[in-house]
């Protein structure tokens, strides 16, 4: 419940159509297309929905840093539930990167540092990128996708477990 088909055999899916224009249901109903690799995930959020959720987290982050018994607390670094963990990495300039992961997933801190590196290399060095605006850079998207796929392949317990 709440999940959608995101990709079939590596081809991105948008609604009921793959990136190359094939209808998902027709593709899946044809036995000649099997075996098939399907990637599931949450529905993609609009830019407005992402901004609304980020601003809500920013408020919680600020409240957490003020209510912390530790003097000079930097705020929320991780929220843990029985079904997921929300990890937050705040840079020295105040930009926050968040990752939702399986509670058993290892290496999220390294992934967050890698995401910051990708952001520094492909967004900040892009002359068309404006701070405080959504990142619209194909190289950033490609490298972020590669980093997330590498983290996903490492498995829920990290490499070598």
Automatic annotation (TrEMBL):
GO cellular component term of the entry, any: Golgi membrane
Write the record's keywords in alphabetical order, separated by commas.
Cell membrane, Endoplasmic reticulum, ER-Golgi transport, Golgi apparatus, Membrane, Postsynaptic cell membrane, Synapse, Transport
User: Which cellular compartments is it found in?
Assistant: Endoplasmic reticulum; Golgi apparatus, cis-Golgi network; Golgi apparatus membrane; Postsynaptic cell membrane
> Can you cite a GO biological process for this protein?
endoplasmic reticulum to Golgi vesicle-mediated transport
Classify the main location. Answer: endoplasmic reticulum
Record-linked Pfam families: Sybindin (PF04099)
Q: According to its UniProt record, which protein family does this protein belong to?
A: Belongs to the TRAPP small subunits family. TRAPPC4 subfamily.
Record's subunit section = Part of the multisubunit transport protein particle (TRAPP) complex.
Q: What role does it play? A: Core component of the TRAPP complexes which has a function of guanine nucleotide exchange factor activity for Rab1 GTPase. Plays a role in vesicular transport from endoplasmic reticulum to Golgi and autophagy. May play a role in dendrite postsynaptic membrane trafficking.
Q: What is this protein called?
A: Trafficking protein particle complex subunit
Q: Which gene encodes it?
A: Trappc4
